Amino acid sequence: MRYELYYWPEIQGRGEFIRLALEEAAADYVDIARMPQRSRVGVPAMMRLLENRAADRPPFAPPVLKAGKQIIAQTANILLFLGPRLGLAPQSEAGRLWAHQLQLTIADLVTEVHDSHHPIASGLYYEEQKREAKRRAEDFRAERLPKFLDYFETAMTRNAGSRRYLIGRRLSYVDLSMFQVIAGLSYAFPRQMARRKPRWPRLMALHQHVAARPRVAAYLASSRRLAFNANGIFRHYPELDG
Amino acid sequence: MRYELYYWPEIQGRGEFIRLALEEAAADYVDIARMPQRSRVGVPAMMRLLENRAADRPPFAPPVLKAGKQIIAQTANILLFLGPRLGLAPQSEAGRLWAHQLQLTIADLVTEVHDSHHPIASGLYYEEQKREAKRRAEDFRAERLPKFLDYFETAMTRNAGSRRYLIGRRLSYVDLSMFQVIAGLSYAFPRQMARRKPRWPRLMALHQHVAARPRVAAYLASSRRLAFNANGIFRHYPELDG
Predict the structure, then answer these.
(1) What DSSP state is assigned to residue B29?
(2) How many CB atoms lie within 10 A of CB B66?
(3) Closest alpha carbon to A204 in A194, A214, A217
(4) Is B39 in CB contact (< 8 Å) with chain A?
(5) How far is B218 from chain A (nearest CA, A)?
């Protein structure tokens, strides 16, 4: 099965959670919108998919995964689909629901990270909501960030299967997503994370462990890995870092 | 199977999406935190569940569903689990992923509704973020609300199985959730919804159809249905309604 990923070509964004799973599994996939603009690929191909008036299951927004004829959107939903197929999810239904539950909580955190610099409108520039962002980021740093990471640290501590992973005895897509969260938070809030990271030793070890896995390391060193930048979800604005 | 629902007893909130599915299916369930405080029920029972240090799969926040020994959190995840068991989800895997995809998009909308009155911090009062809420609600009314509802209207139009439901030929949990969304938006933004609703005829018809289903109608008329209020997700502040 050759998977097709449709996501904005210039940011990691939510697409990165899918890319990391496909890369770790060495899956056969094409990152459609990042291909040179030829007749059937590139950004125009993504726009055609998003605006296709004949689609009976239209996506609301990227990322979108095409698997044969199946078209799936919503990041956590795509990972729910891919997890078992890529060997990155637990076997049992209960295990898969638990993985998905953690992934949805990661999605909530990611939305709050986005809103820390865009609390008023995603359609406006950061500069147009800077004052509000300062207030929201302050609450994010003081309340939300520690609440979420304390939670994930606790979940790791309670994992009877292993203390290296969030779920069971093996790497899952949730571990890959948690790597991305720690990487993104460390980029966006370097002062805050440097100060607080002793509080989350297991998450920090997970981040290092995932980064060192051969396929992830090769991916991170390749041109396929986009750099963090000021258009993505994780953005570094020193004034929001406290 | 007797299900146990754990959710705040004084608001509809995210718990309402679960309540509606359980009610429509006439499922055997107990709304734990709404029971009188006796030794094993009421709010203290919910707090014990949330703070249980022995839980190997801790929930981040309510709603939480207990099904036998299984403990499941995240609204859309609970509905993913309950859907097939209550006869409120498509049979095929692809159909279930599509239902879940729509439910996750509803969840995104619900978060944006919440943030329209709490754009800075959920831990602060509305009065402490009123100015920012005015700006965010303005964008929500002008951009986000129409974008989401246009999308769901389109999804209904494209449903080849039936134009009465969002998915296939039968009622699903997604239809029940969409009923709740329309009910909530009509409560929170009455002027805006009255003005714009001709744009979404199928969603409005779905709302009426669901409200008239015998079990839903009986539920809505009962004391089990909490009223909308100024503590929930859908709040009516006239100054945010444009």
Answers:
(1) E
(2) 17
(3) A194
(4) no
(5) 32
Taking alpha carbons only, the member of A56, A230, A75 closest to residue B108 is: A75
Q: Give yes or no for a contact between A99 and A89, defined as CB atoms under 8 angstroms apart.
A: yes
SS3 at position B232: coil
Kindly report, residue by residue over A131-159, the tens digit of the pLDDT: 999 999 999 999 999 999 999 999 999 99
Q: Is B99 an interface residue toward A (CB < 8 Å)?
A: no
User: What CATH fold (topology level) applies to the domain B93-213?
Assistant: Glutathione S-transferase Yfyf (Class Pi); Chain A, domain 2 (1.20.1050)
Q: Which residue, chain included where needed, has tokens 């909130």?
A: B13
Asked if the C-beta of A143 comes within 8 angstroms of chain B's C-beta atoms, the answer is yes
Q: Is ipTM strictly over 0.90?
A: yes
Phi-psi region of A13 (alpha: psi -120 to 50; beta: other; left: phi over 0): left
Cross-strand pairs, A32: none
Domain residue extents for chain A: 3-85, 93-213
Enumerate the residues of chain A whose CB falls inside 8 A of the CB of residue B159: 56
- How many beta-carbon pairs below 8 A join chains A and B? 109
CB A111 within 8 A of CB B111: yes
- Closest C-alpha to A50, from A64, A39, A38: A64
Q: Check CB contact under 8 Å for B97 and A115.
A: no
CATH code that applies to domain B3-85:
3.40.30.10
Is 0.80 topped by the overall pTM?
A: yes
Going by the DSSP 8-state scheme, the letter that residue A53 receives in this structure is T
Considering only CA atoms, give the Rg of chain B: 18
List, for residues B94-121, the tens digit of each pLDDT value: 999 999 999 999 999 999 999 999 999 9
Tell me, yes or no, if A120 comes closer than 8 A to chain B by beta carbon.
yes
